[in-house]
Each structure stands twice: as C-alpha cells, then as structure tokens.
Amino acid sequence: MVDAIVELIRKDEHFIDFASYPLRGKNVSGEILLKEPSAVVSGVEIVQDVCKRFNLTIQFSCKDGDVVKKGSVAKIFGDAYNLLICERTILNVLSFMSGVATKVRNIVERTNGKVKIAATRKTIPFVGEMQKLAVIHGGGDTHRLNLSDCAMIKDNHIKLYGSVSEAVKQVKKILSFSKKIEVEAETEQMAFEACEAGADIVMLDNFSPQEACRVAKALKEKYPHVLIELSGGVNPDKIEEYLCEYIDVISIGRLTSEVKYIDFSLEIE
C-alpha cells in the first residue's frame, strides 16, 4: 500500500516539479489542519510511512480511529521540495480514508452495539485496501477481504450449480475446515434451504426491514448457530429501521462505494 502511494507521488512529480525545485535543500515546517468541525481520522500510519520514504518528519497529535476536532492534527518537518511534492497526495490519503471512517463511525454509534456493521466488496478500484482499513478505524467490519476469505455462494453460483443445496454440497467438497460458507438468499425458502444444506452464514438479500426480521427470527429458532446477515438496499440514513435482535450483521455497500472527502490542508509556518 505504501509502495503504491510512493510510486504515485513519483509519477506525479514526473521528471521534476518546476515550481518547487528552486526550494530544494531548504528546511521548512508546517501543520496539517482539519478544516471541518470534527472527523474520525484514518490514514495516520500510512502517511507516517510515506513521509519516512521522503525523509520528512511528521508528528501526529492523534492516531487512527480517534475523533479529532477542527484545527491542527500534525506537524511536519523536512526539505521543502519533498514536502511540496508529497503535499497533495498525503492530504488526499487522509481526506479519503477519514471520509470512510467518519461515515462508518456515525452508523456504528447509531446501532448502539446491537448489530455488526460491515462493508462489502463494492470498493473503489485500486484503493479497496485503504477503504477496508478505514472501515476498521471507523469501528466497522471489513467483511471478506478477498474471494478466498469465505466461500460466498451468490445468485449466479446458484444458477450454475442448479440449486442452493447443490452449490453448498459441491463447495463443501473442496473447502478447508478453516473457512465458512455463506449463501446469498433472495427468498425465505432459499434461506432455509441454505441452512439445511449446512451454510454457516445466510445473507438476506434485498429484504425489507420488517420481512428480514421475521425471516431471521424463524431461521434462528431452528438454526441458532447460523449467522444472519442483512444486505442489499440498506439505507444507512435509516439504519435504525433495520435493527433486529435476530440479525447479526448488516453489510452496506455505500460505506465504500460513495465517499465524501474530509477537508484537510497543509500550511507552511
């Protein structure tokens, strides 16, 4: 992740940053400022590692996952040229990751610990790992990080295998004991079939809040060991409507598919 960001800065610099080159060798200091009332900061450790690669010293007054208020969050020292070529990229990292973390924290706090809030695989290409890390800093769950993390049987798998039961049966033949099987269920019947076939997790896909709670209750009464996930069409602005004692996880694609930057700036002293 850090290597990719360093490469991005070097590509941005290209041959030379003409506006900054005459300032090389000049030692300067500056502050990174949060311009908004508050935010959950994310990207601190990444920015620290990137700055090291350019011989810049950065001292944050916070750590990843902290709630910070408007004002200074870090002091930075070093060669003016290196600082200036890194400026926009390190601010982008903080703005982007803090935007995800802040959104996640807002939703997590509104659930009062009644359910786990998870991301999905609907991440922005090439920056998905940064987004998943920001989800952790916001207090959420990453969900699976790659296809091998969990055997998730979705609608197209079921069509190709012929049925939920057959899909679970075939996947079980090759799956390690250390992995779980999750089945995406579009109907109550599919959810029960998945449990009967031996799925570890059942995802109720695009259910209304009321229907999801009713089906989850019925599933838990017969299969209490099965984890119930609700996903698809979940409106994070109305997360309270989806809370139900029988639902273990709510996964929301919009945690990472829609990003609002948090405004940070760097000011030279």
TrEMBL record:
Residues 100-267 form the Quinolinate phosphoribosyl transferase C-terminal domain. Transmembrane segments: none annotated. Gene3D superfamilies: Aldolase class I, Quinolinate phosphoribosyl transferase, N-terminal domain. NCBIfam families: nadC. One of its GO terms (molecular function) is nicotinate-nucleotide diphosphorylase (carboxylating) activity. One of its GO terms (cellular component) is cytoplasm. Its EC number is 2.4.2.19. It comes from Fervidobacterium pennivorans. Residues 24-98 form the Quinolinate phosphoribosyl transferase N-terminal domain. The gene is nadC. This is nicotinate-nucleotide diphosphorylase (carboxylating). Signal peptide: none annotated. It is an enzyme of class 2 (transferase). Belongs to the NadC/ModD family.
